[in-house]
Amino acid sequence: MNALLVGVSQLQSSIPQGLLPFARDIPEVSLNPAALLISIVTGVAILIILVSWAKVHPFLAIMLAALITGIGSGFGLMNTVHAFLDGFGDTTKSVGILVGIGAMLGAVLMVTGATGVLVDVLISKSSRKMLPWTMALIGSLIGLPLFFDVGLIIMAPVIIMVTRKSKMPLMMIAMPALAGLCAMQALVPPHPGPTAALQTFENGSMGITMGMGIVLAIPLVIICGPLFAKYSTRIVPRGAPDTFAMADKEDGVEGRRKPSFGLSLLCVTMPAILLLITSIIMMVRPDLHDSKEMGAQILQFIGNPEIALLISLVFASLTLFVTTRYPWEKLNDEAGKSLRPIAGIVFILGAGGGFKNLLIDTGIGDMITKFVENTNISIILIAWVIAVFVRVATGSSTVSAITTAGILEPTATALAYDPIQTGLLVLAIGAGSFIFSFVNDAGLWLVKEYFGFTLPEMFKTWTVMTCLISIVGLVLVWGLGLFLL
């Protein structure tokens, strides 16, 4: 265990400064591996029973499961509490504002008719058979510059309204869009996982890795999106939920002036446009990341997801108010009302983050990593396997990517990997880090609450889809490596 803690310390010191928010100091504790594994299995089992059978609210169930896991493993009473609270605070700080602003933006787009205009055009231009493919394309485009949480917040109203108006099963519309968001998150910088891994290696190229990631994401989205949706629809055949009272908002739009398709599309995609532009500029000029010049500071400011969403909310509110003549006071009232139902989501996400960070602090991911590190297999497969185990143990794709890249960096340096080989290694890590979204993953709870799925339904569809993304992603990376090398 001492050697493990030294390795973790060395790994943390190698993480770029810009990624330090994703890395946390791990308390120096010595836990019995068997007790730790038993406590984790027990905690997860209790969580599933509480949510699925006893119908306990997920926030309370996750918190109880986390406490049982930490205390049962021998981590200590106060260490368990502090680890959970730290994770809760970190998650709500980063995701809570995004969810709140995103919900307000969604309400503004809904009540002014902007979302309805987009949906009408999508349905009129796409046949019923082509709608899943259209949603996969939109999800991929939105997911290219946006983190998964932000992309989901923007896409959720569109997904639900398309489902309502097309009268198609929810899974046929939602799963392709979610696959597009997930594939980009797993494989394409500037998302945290692949970016963290890329910056750990000496010869990494952002442009080459991004290009290869986009190429691989195309077949990945096709397989895990429209094709997989046929399976998931058999599991969950029902239509759209009335999340956030969308039916009431939609009914209020009838008879009012509606915005143009161009303006509606701009309001929906503005966060993606702002983040994409700033990301490209930062990739071309990496020196701007640490620059104190006013121009660089403005770019960094706009490139912050919270600020990009806030700018988009203000822009959408003003332009749609002028265009549609929707009463300003009522518009603000609807935006404010949208915050009420997402309070539960924020608490669930915070609890999921607390559980995740408790697992990270107990060292389960590092113990499994050290075990897998000594296996004698291909470095691409090693990268994927290590990322898989750390992801399963911690529930964090970013922590998985950072940990795996830190372990393999000396090997890649010793083998003098060029930018293409390094990019393939990063993509293998990204694919592995996205496997098996489970109860310790905040993304699972976000999708569950937005679309009204039960926990068993999430395991049979969403969790299976993330496993498929990871496994198919590995096969595609391997195939691309055989072609390029």
TrEMBL record:
<feature type="transmembrane region" description="Helical">
    <location>
        <begin position="379"/>
        <end position="408"/>
    </location>
</feature>
<feature type="transmembrane region" description="Helical">
    <location>
        <begin position="135"/>
        <end position="162"/>
    </location>
</feature>
<feature type="transmembrane region" description="Helical">
    <location>
        <begin position="420"/>
        <end position="439"/>
    </location>
</feature>
<dbReference type="Pfam" id="PF02447">
    <property type="entry name" value="GntP_permease"/>
</dbReference>
<keyword id="KW-0813">Transport</keyword>
<dbReference type="GO" id="GO:0005886">
    <property type="term" value="C:plasma membrane"/>
</dbReference>
<feature type="transmembrane region" description="Helical">
    <location>
        <begin position="459"/>
        <end position="484"/>
    </location>
</feature>
<keyword id="KW-0812">Transmembrane</keyword>
<dbReference type="GO" id="GO:0015128">
    <property type="term" value="F:gluconate transmembrane transporter activity"/>
</dbReference>
<keyword id="KW-0472">Membrane</keyword>
<dbReference type="InterPro" id="IPR003474">
    <property type="entry name" value="Glcn_transporter"/>
</dbReference>
<keyword id="KW-1133">Transmembrane helix</keyword>
<feature type="transmembrane region" description="Helical">
    <location>
        <begin position="307"/>
        <end position="326"/>
    </location>
</feature>
<feature type="transmembrane region" description="Helical">
    <location>
        <begin position="338"/>
        <end position="359"/>
    </location>
</feature>
<feature type="transmembrane region" description="Helical">
    <location>
        <begin position="59"/>
        <end position="85"/>
    </location>
</feature>
<feature type="transmembrane region" description="Helical">
    <location>
        <begin position="208"/>
        <end position="229"/>
    </location>
</feature>
<protein>
    <submittedName>
        <fullName>Gluconate:H+ symporter</fullName>
    </submittedName>
</protein>
<feature type="transmembrane region" description="Helical">
    <location>
        <begin position="263"/>
        <end position="284"/>
    </location>
</feature>
<feature type="transmembrane region" description="Helical">
    <location>
        <begin position="34"/>
        <end position="53"/>
    </location>
</feature>
<comment type="similarity">
    <text>Belongs to the GntP permease family.</text>
</comment>
<feature type="transmembrane region" description="Helical">
    <location>
        <begin position="97"/>
        <end position="123"/>
    </location>
</feature>
<keyword id="KW-1003">Cell membrane</keyword>
